[in-house]
Amino acid sequence: RLPHRRRQETMIVDIQGEFDLYVSPLFQEKMKEIDLESVDGVIIDFSRVEYIDSSGLGAMVGLRKKLLMTDTPLLIAGANDSVKKIIHLTHLENLITTVADINAAIELIRP
């Protein structure tokens, strides 16, 4: 349900619809399955996310903490205005960089 792909050494995870209480456990399980130590960065594609709640935010914070251990960047790409507002209000932008799209995220990971 949470497709992911690699672009060279960068992992891209696609989330669609609502990133909420129902999707967060799936996201966390998917992140456990992926060998995060073998990637140079993780991009979460929010271009089709309509809404994020506290459980989605918590899942993102948990992933960020895990990636900090290996100094691996985590970026959110393509969030719409309402999701960006929630990210801003919760100060998640201080932990996770948000960018316009996947290409901008890849440029930040591999300048």
Can you lay out the helices and strands and say which pair or pack?
Elements (H helix, E strand, L loop, with lengths): L3 E4 L2 E10 L4 H10 L7 E12 L1 H15 L5 E4 L3 H9 L7 E3 L2 H8 L2
Parallel strand pairs: 2-3, 3-4, 4-5
Antiparallel strand pairs: 1-2
Helix pairs in contact: 1-2
Strand neighbour order, sheet with most strands: 1-2-3-4-5
Strand/helix succession: EEHEHEHEH
Specify Rg, calculated over alpha carbons: 13 Å
Give the CA-based shape: globular
- How many E strands? 5
Arithmetic mean pLDDT: 94
Low-pLDDT stretches are none
Global structural class: alpha/beta
Question: What do these coordinates show?
Answer:
With 111 residues, this protein is an alpha/beta fold. The chain has helices at 24-33, 54-68, 81-89, 102-109, and strands spanning 4-7, 10-19, 41-52, 74-77, 97-99. Strands 1-2-3-4-5 form a five-stranded mixed beta sheet, with helices on both faces. Helix 1 links the parallel strand 2 (10-19) and strand 3 (41-52). The mean pLDDT is 94.
Task: Briefly summarize what is shown.
38% of the residues lie in helices and 30% in strands. By secondary structure, it is an alpha/beta fold.
Q: Which features does this protein show?
A:
single chain; alpha/beta; 5-stranded mixed sheet
